[in-house]
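Data card: per-record layout.
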Amino acid sequence: MPKKPKYNPLQLIDNNRILALIIVVLLLIIMLYPRFNMQDISIIRPFTGVKAGEMTPDQKNYYNFTEYFKGKSELDKIFPPFSYRPLMPFVASLLPFDSMLSMSIVNVIANLLTVLLIYLTLRQLNFNYSLRIVGILLYIVSFPLMYYGSSGFLEPTANLFIYLIVYLTVSNRIVYLPIVFILAAITKEVTIIALPFALVYLLVNNRSNLRELKKSMFLLLLSFLFFIIANLLIRYLFSTDNTYLWSPSFDTAIGNLSRAKTYLSFILAFGLPGLFSLWYFISKQSGLNKKKLLAWYCGTLCAILLSAYSVVAAYSDGRFIWTGYPFMIVIAVYFFQERLSKA
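The structure for this 343-residue chain is written out next.
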């Protein structure tokens, strides 16, 4: 009797590609709707700690920054470090809507572009269509996207540049990295965590080609210098006398460590991508060369360190570990690929 072929649960996605795409779009709408434009639906409002019509300090600063670019507010109403992040408020100010709605729209567009970059990155890494969809679903069906993805936070737009840097790195389009790092720098400073990933990835993949290695290292050095220069320039152009700037302190650490939301938001934001990444890390990998994952784990570690730093220097929540999704999603997809190959 002929051997019965192994059942691959992801074959259903490959056989129904249009339906899979429709499901992705519907889920994206469902996840972005609850907090769009800060109009929190009633079921989640008790958990947000923000009353109807109010904004968090972060959102208020970005709102004022958008108003500043519209000529309706003064720069002194914006506190550092928020005043050092002009790109998203500037883009939002170009839209003919209320500033909060404009920021929400920019973030929705950023999420759409992020989904596209996830697909392109996974395709570049030679994953099949079904696994690319799995990677996208790991991004969409997540706490950070629902909670931070469509309101006046900056993270969706900032994270977009991390995904873009990842894609340009794996697709060998690193000649564009210096320009992208400039844009990333004036969006949010945490985007620098993409640099260690790019460094390790290019070192691992170009170690046998000295000429390519020298070229890539030069471009990364240039990217780093441009990032620093852009940050210094922004601090000069948008400096104020306000002193809200986050800095490490014992009081900040105590405040974060005494809040249940600090732990809960981290766990929820770590989510399935983090869980599968951790599971893969501690499992006995045999089918995959571990060197292929080195850069991705480096990026994940940078996000974890950023989260740890936020405990002593900022209002710590799930937004910081969300920066690790560009790396954790890829690790999780490798995990699924290996598991299915052994099924």
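Known properties of this structure: The chain has one domain: 11-36+54-342. The chain has a mean pLDDT of 91.

See the next section for split statistics.
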